[in-house]
């Protein structure tokens, strides 16, 4: 399509017939009817554009809208403008060279351009005018309520034209209608937004009119009160009132609404079933002051929370643990009853604050790594240190009336929205400590009892071990006397007999040393060679080994050294040996005791294993329990293996397990008990 032009740049002013003047009324009526019918705003704007185009043949109509955020304009409605035209006019910047629409917004007044090819107002858009054959363009600004330009309505023609009065009136009418449509759109969006917010709100809402009749209600209210919508519309909200509210409450409510257009307070209502509902009600008059919005917030959960908080507060106050709360600087702000029972020289928080008490001042000096000694730990305030090492267990000792009390102490920092505070908890473990000390005494007694029992066996062993050397010494001495008496004693026989007597005397002396080292009970931590310790064990029990016909099979790792309590370890070995000896007595055939040592991953393992058939499975979990024994009361106390467990685990920080093991030795399959000590 090409633009129609006149020679000498003469521009026609289109003449409109009288019938066309009347057509504007029909145009206006049709569009306003669509508005009254609440049709979609885009459909209304497109219909408006098409109606305007019919009143100006050979033209296109458009509505452009200004983006407040970017300050740029884009097409909102232009049903007959092709897609490429929409894209070309996207993000148009208002200004004196920005075309008819850009100038209408920039100057906030109508712009009538008869020749877009030459008019300076189209300087920046002349290529667009030529490409789309837009010969003339008339644009009218669209205003908001403040008379500010928010967009334009325009008629662009494929002919060079100037508007007649009718066309200007058409532009003004269309612009005004667009303004109404956009205003309705905003209002509808606000109404829709409010309606959605109201319907989806968790709080119950009702809207009443000036006669105080319900005209709208949301789903939350209906759900909370158990009503159907049709049962409450047109009713007075009085139907929800219970008899728990005084007349003064309602009197003050309406007084506040009339004076301040709002009221809020706690109301006890009732639901459809007559159940009481405690709610916080906020009533506000709407803009026209003929309608009121009431918002109902259910306080049931809040009351439950308050009740739970009261219970929690009571639990903290009455807790058997002493609980203290301080600020971040360590100043005590709260302490419960248990705290004041411990520190009974103080009666209140004020006493503590007035005396400027530091909690750490009460810590007694206890020589133990788990006990806090004072204000600082590794140059850090003790509270900060405990917060940073919450996975560890710390103790404190506090003296009260000359008695030392022991506590596990825990520290945690927490915060509310506007405050941070520290919680310190003291759990009394004094009875546990005393019981532990008593247990240590009992264990000491048990150890001595076990050792005395072992000593009895050791004396028997020594008696057996001494019998042969003493017999040899006695026989040798008697032989020397007889040979001397008959004059047949030679120097050679004398020398050999004296050497034999000396060797057996040394053996007796070593046996005495071994026994003395075992019974003297010195608990001295020193370094020793494990292989030598096991050989000392075998010398101590050598007589029992021979008398009970036990074969000892050794597999000892060379040069394994330990630092610890050798004497106690020997005691453990003797107890395990005695246990194996007793069960081996009950079997026929070969009797074996295997002793193995090895080093794995920095740990030393000592393994005792017999071939006596193993430990019954119902007994196996109990064998380390104190006083548990399968022997007759006259044969055992049940202290042996319990003492082994105590010495290995608690005394040496090691581990011991007992299990049954099936194995081969000399191509023969055996089953027996296996004790594995890990140090």
* Shape estimate: elongated
Number of domains: 4
Structural class: alpha+beta
Mean pLDDT: 82
What does it look like?
The structure is a single chain. The chain is of the alpha+beta class. Helices cover 42% and strands 24% of the residues. Helix 1 packs parallel to helix 6 and helix 16 (530-540) crosses helix 18. The radius of gyration is 53 Å and the shape is elongated. The two termini are 103 Å apart. The relative contact order is 0.04. Mean pLDDT is 82; it is low at 5-14 and 632-638.
Give short descriptive properties of this protein.
5-stranded antiparallel sheet; Beta-Lactamase; 679 residues; alpha+beta
Summarize the model shown.
With 679 residues, this protein is of the alpha+beta class. It folds into 4 domains: 7-192, Beta-Lactamase; 201-304, Beta-Lactamase (2-Layer Sandwich); 319-428, 2-Layer Sandwich (Beta-Lactamase); 438-678, Histidine kinase-like ATPase, C-terminal domain (Heat Shock Protein 90), CATH 3.30.565.10. It is built from 19 helices and 26 strands.
